[in-house]
Specification:
The complex is a heterodimer of chains A (about 170) and B (about 100). Chain A folds into 2 domains: about 80 residues, Rna Polymerase Sigma Factor, Chain: A (Orthogonal Bundle), CATH 1.10.1740.10; about 80 residues, Winged helix-like DNA-binding domain superfamily/Winged helix DNA-binding domain (Arc Repressor Mutant, subunit A). In chain A, about 75% of the residues lie in helices and about 0% in strands. Chain A has 9 helices and no strands. The model of chain A has no long low-confidence stretch (mean pLDDT about 85). Chain B is mainly alpha-helical. Helices cover about 55% and strands about 0% of the residues of chain B. Chain B contains 4 helices and no strands. The model of chain B has no long low-confidence stretch (mean pLDDT about 80). The chains are: A mainly alpha (about 170), B mainly alpha (about 100).
Chain lengths: ~170, ~100
């Protein structure tokens, strides 16, 4: 990969990766570290990306995802990432009182178990297909569907007050 | 019922927006932005090897042509032109004696 190619890749994908990493880690500083390390990996080993296996965007999101999960592992217990544990994982309701609506949504997303969080972020914010998410997360399609379903259920439960407000607001608009 | 709930949730989630990567990340990944005078003093440019070879060949040819031209012009300025030289037709030698010469 030449220097101009690297710069172009950086300029094209930095914002997506940064937003994804921020939502995953809940911290702008950690997001910056993850994106920096991701491009360092691309610079040192560009042959790690194989165009036949997907787009560069998917590859970079996959690398950033691994780095973000590594950071989260450093902050919490490792078994929280176990899929079996996540199947039954129901996040405790965060304190959503006070603050802006965006802040409340951020807290609700942050309270999701990491594997549910990543599929929710990739599906809802990055608008990736289930197949793309499956490649990025290195998980079976069925597992991704299941995680996304549980993540949405949890979010609906946690954000019920906001959803009700929204329902009322959209009802009055009609 | 379910798709409507999903759509509502998607709409609600979109209320949490995050700005793009900060300039500090650009500096970390791409290096600090250099000032124009710094580029002039320490900047480098990449030139393809064939272009360098062609340029070097042109310079060598020009240098050789200059060196070849210079001795020729120097020789031309110091050389005696004998093209219009003609021997003296009437030789009239006049001997002038000096006062100290013995008679």
């Amino acid at each position: 990969m030449t220097d101009p190619e690297f710069r172009e890749a950086y300029c094209r994908h930095k914002d997506v990766l940064y937003r994804f990493a921020w939502r995953m880690t809940g911290s702008p500083a950690s997001a910056e570290d993850a994106v920096h390390d991701c491009f360092l990996i691309l610079l040192r080993n560009p042959s790690g990306y194989n165009a036949a296996r997907g787009t560069l965007r998917s590859f970079l999101i996959g690398v950033t995802r691994n780095l973000a999960l590594k950071q989260l592992r450093g902050q919490s217990r490792f078994d929280e990432f176990d899929d079996e544990n996540e199947d039954n994982a129901a996040p405790s309701l965060p304190d959503l009182d006070g603050g802006s609506r965006a802040g409340m949504i951020a807290r609700a997303v942050a309270s999701l178990p990491p594997l549910q969080r990543e599929v929710l972020i990739l599906a809802e914010y990055e608008e990736m297909t289930l197949e793309e998410i499956s490649r990025v997360a290195g998980a079976e399609l069925a597992a991704v569907k299941s995680r996304l379903h549980r993540a949405r259920e949890n979010m609906r439960r946690m954000l019920a007050p906001l959803l009700d407000q929204k329902g009322i607001a959209s009802g009055t608009n009609r | 019922m379910e798709p409507t709930d999903d759509a509502k949730l998607t709409e609600l989630l979109k209320e949490w927006q995050i700005s793009g990567a900060p300039p500090s990340l650009d500096e970390r990944v791409l290096g600090p932005r250099r000032r124009w005078w710094s580029v002039l003093l320490t900047g480098t440019i990449r030139i393809p090897v064939p272009a360098v070879i062609v340029l070097a060949a042109i310079l060598l040819i020009m240098a050789a042509a200059l060196l070849h031209q210079r001795p020729a012009s120097q020789a031309a300025s110091t050389a005696i032109n004998l093209a219009e030289f003609q021997p003296v037709k009437v030789l009239n030698v006049r001997v002038i004696r000096g006062s100290n010469d013995p008679r």
